[in-house]
Design goal:
210 residues; alpha/beta; Rossmann fold
């Protein structure tokens, strides 16, 4: 099967974008004003291929509701968690949900593997015990002949997972597409005036595939 299965850990992707914005943008509060361009990020993940399944997990601050709805209209299943819940709900539960779906898909498509596209930087937990962390699920899928692609920021991706992906699949550094997968809103009243930055067009010719 050449169809793509997208697994999207948005909290990790967004935090990495905030950290990189503070380095790349010229203003001090860019980390607060940066936004992920969901349309371009999803198009970067699927890279013009048919999508058999796409699951995104994240939180529900009110300003993002319309953006999540846009993803749903593109056929992405969205699972959201309230930021007001305990920190465990914000981090561990979404990660476990994605890991469970990866495992289910690996079993359900045994003998007909696809292309697993994981958007995250969180590959930790490898040594904590059996089945912990995204890296283990990627290894399980790879053993079942799935092709593997990981999209992550260079500075935030777990180095062990990145090295393994480079040796066994394709690692896509989101840094190389930063201007296309992010935008920056204008400064708030009372702060030094800074103009908004729109997302640049997405160039998929630079996007490697497994």
């Amino acid at each position: 099967m050449d169809k793509v299965f997208v697994y999207w850990d948005n909290s990790n992707i967004f935090i990495g974008a905030q950290e990189l914005a503070e380095e790349r943008e010229s203003n001090a509060d860019a980390g607060y004003r940066v936004r992920v361009n969901f349309r371009n990020m999803f198009n970067l993940a699927r890279a013009g291929r048919d999508v058999a399944k796409a699951l995104a997990v994240g939180s529900i601050p009110p300003p993002l509701r319309n953006v999540w709805d846009h993803l749903r209209r593109q056929g992405v299943e969205v699972q959201l968690y309230d930021r007001g819940e305990a920190e465990k709900k914000e981090q561990e539960v979404p990660d476990r949900l994605l890991q469970l779906e990866m495992l289910r898909d690996a079993l359900d498509h045994n003998g007909d593997p696809g292309i697993a596209v994981l958007l995250t930087g969180d590959g930790g937990g490898y040594y904590k015990g059996p089945g912990v962390g995204f890296h283990k699920e990627l290894e399980r899928m790879h053993k079942r002949k799935w092709r593997i692609e990981v999209l992550s920021w260079r500075h935030s991706c777990n180095q062990r997972m990145r090295k393994w992906t480079e040796e066994n699949g394709v690692f896509i550094a989101l840094d190389d597409f930063y201007e296309s997968v992010t935008s920056v809103k204008e400064s708030e009243p009372g702060y030094p005036p800074v103009r908004a930055r729109e997302s640049a067009p997405l160039d998929l010719s630079r996007r490697a595939k497994a």
